[in-house]
Amino acid sequence: MRAAVGCSDRGHTAASQLKPGEIDWAQIFKKDGARWLHTGGIFCALSETTPLVAQEAMQAAKESGAIVSYDLNYRSSLWKSIGGKAKAQEVNRGLAPYVDVMLGNEEDFTAALGFSVAGLDEHHSKLDPSGFKKMIEAVVKEYPSMSVIATTLRHAKTASRNDWGALCYFDGKFHEAQVRNDLEIYDRVGGGDSFASGLIYGFLSGKDAQWSVECGAAHGALAMTTPGDTTMATMTEVLQAMTARTARIER
Predict the structure, then answer these.
(1) Nearest to 136 by CA among 98, 154, 109
(2) Strands (E), the chain
(3) CB count, 10 Å around CB of 67?
(4) How many CB atoms lie within 10 A of CB 204?
(5) CA-based nearest residue to 66, from 43, 20, 100
(6) Reduced to 3 states, what is the DSSP secondary structure of residue 41?
(7) pLDDT tens digits for the chain (251 residues)?
């Protein structure tokens, strides 16, 4: 009966105090050669100035040819003091045209970007990808600059037992990761971030979209079997989890 609970302890952090003009983006992208910028809704919800910093960074990344990814990551507890859901949608829709790779789950796309998922009940008890595909097609139509849109698919049966999958749109086609039914959860915080990093790793490594979404889903699943929101998985474990159908012991 008890759901998982998360607390974003970000008050007065250095990141929340950032303002435009304080970071040398030209150094990062043009001189140091950073190829990918990743940011998202949690950073943009920290203060009135962080969305301006995100936009500044995204513009600099685009000018240098770097890829920009954005995880919507809607957190009502962060947005409530600066305008709530309406402010979240205003900020995210303003930044969306700069995004190449958009990430999020069903609640993120609805609450933070204003796109609903057809056929999704209030308990999010179905992992039917068809509704997500229609939603993604609507997002692509409104924001044609997005070359990749990816979403995790989660049915939280209990706090410690979830069905877990993922879907990725790339180059006009949809790619689905295998669904892990009844995934046993130790600490679910960080599953979405680990999905994002696995997906990004795949694309940065020159892998195709199917490999990348499978990597993200496997990495996210592994992250939820360990404590904390920082991954403890090795590359070998991720590769094994991408193809494994059992939990036989490795010796």
Answers:
(1) 109
(2) 36-40, 67-71, 101-104, 148-158, 161-170, 173-176, 180-184
(3) 19
(4) 12
(5) 100
(6) helix
(7) 787 777 888 889 999 999 999 999 999 999 999 999 999 999 999 999 999 999 999 999 999 999 999 999 999 999 998 899 999 999 999 999 999 999 998 889 999 999 988 776 665 556 678 888 999 999 999 999 999 999 999 999 999 999 999 999 999 999 999 999 999 999 999 999 999 999 999 999 999 999 999 999 999 999 999 998 899 999 999 999 998 866 676 66
Exposure class string for 91-112: b at 16+ Cβ within 10 A, else e: bbeebbebbbbbbbbbbbbbbb
CATH homologous superfamily for the domain 29-243? Ribokinase (3.40.1190.20)
Spans of all domains in the chain? 29-243
Dihedral angle of Cα 101, 105, 111, 116, to the nearest 10 degrees: 90
0.90 exceeded by pTM:
yes
